[in-house]
Amino acid sequence: MAKDPVRVLVTGAAGQIGYALVPMIARGAMLGPDQPVILHMLDIEPAAEALKGVKMELIDAAFPLLRDVVATTDAVEACKGVNIAVMVGGFPRKEGMERKDVMSKNVSIYKAQASALEKHAAPDCKVLVVANPANTNALIFKEFAPSIPEKNITCLTRLDHNRALGQISEKLNVHVSEVKNVIIWGNHSSTQYPDVNHATVKATNGGEKPVRELVANDNWLNTEFITTVQQRGAAIIKARKLSSALSAASAACDHIRDWVLGTPKGTWVSMGVYSDGSYGIQPGLIYSFPVTCEKGQWSIVQGLKIDEFSRAKMDATAKELVEEKSLAYSCLN
Ligand SMILES: NC(=O)c1ccc[n+]([C@@H]2O[C@H](COP(=O)([O-])OP(=O)(O)OC[C@H]3O[C@@H](n4cnc5c(N)ncnc54)[C@H](O)[C@@H]3O)[C@@H](O)[C@H]2O)c1
Questions:
Q1: S-S: 66 plus which of 26, 139, 207, 223, CB 3.0-4.6 Å?
Q2: Which among 9, 103, 243, 254 is the best mutation to test ligand 1's pocket, defined by most ligand atoms within 8 Å of the CB?
Q3: Is 1 within the bounds of a domain?
Q4: What global pTM score does this model have?
Q5: Does 188 qualify as catalytic in the annotation?
Q6: Contact 106, 139 (CB under 8 A)
């Protein structure tokens, strides 16, 4: 019997990531090849015509899984009954703008959208915030949607996670699917800490070998590897004159897919989630941790050994999040 369709909201759907993301969702890359979907696309008035065009293209692509498309500039209409919300829309930092000005714009967007979703989405709605500053937008979202369980509000650091897998795969000349269990700790910003201390590569005998042992170059792993992952977004802007879009869209699909359908046994992924104090991270921050997912629930991987080098980097990115949080709160007043 055919499954009931799942309603997926994409905000900022007329933008670059939205344009790459909606066809992926309609093809089953997010929820699986047998899951029909209804796409809800929200954007703002100046992008209304472009949004109409995206809807026309979705119709023209004749996707078998796509049951309907709602394209609107009305947040209430967009949020009605949605089961999954991918929040891509936001206010970008423009030249000459202060950090506080950008924060203030996004705080008011996330405050309003949190209230709309809380009132109109399906009760079990899962939320993924992509728009930057992603962790702090998710935190504001959580504050203003108190009836949505904090376990249902996450932010995207899977792109950074996938970038780390990609760098190790290139270095060792192995396929990316053979590398697993890297970790992105902290903020989706240049203070994030990409950690390979627990990462492994599939060995030819079926076992696993530690990445550190195979790379055999601690200096590279502790310096260039980290900065390459941290600054990959800037490198893409330099090359493309536009920020990463297809890889961000693909990572958003990976994030939701693993959250809903589960992570493979023995594998974890990175997600920005509500800190419960694990690994000494201040409770209440939205911080990227290693997580496993089962039956639609994520749990933070516990008991990993943290060395001094990692500790310092994990604390530095937490400190930045505490500062962002207080900046965001100052914008509320
Ligand atoms: N977390 C990550 O890994 C990651 C990666 C890449 C980009 N990003 C962020 O994702 C966001 C989107 O990137 P993009 O390249 O698609 O940007 P974009 O400018 O191409 O698109 C953004 C869209 O959001 C819309 N928008 C603005 N305010 C809105 C609102 N209040 N409600 C609904 N829509 C609104 C805009 O009209 C636009 O269509 C940016 O904040 C970017 O920094 C995050």
A1: 26
A2: 243
A3: no
A4: 0.97
A5: yes
A6: no
